[in-house]
């Protein structure tokens, strides 16, 4: 599944992106 994370430069956005990548999502 592909996920688009907006605001990826912020702390919350980057933390969310890392969590999704670890969960196996294509971010």
UniProtKB/TrEMBL annotation:
Residues 3-27 form the NAD-dependent epimerase/dehydratase domain. InterPro entries: Epimerase_deHydtase, NAD(P)-bd_dom_sf. It comes from the Bacteria. This is UDP-glucose 4-epimerase. It comes from Neisseria meningitidis.
């Amino acid at each position: 599944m592909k996920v688009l994370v907006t605001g990826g430069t912020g702390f919350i956005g980057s933390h969310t992106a890392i969590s999704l990548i670890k969960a196996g999502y294509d971010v």
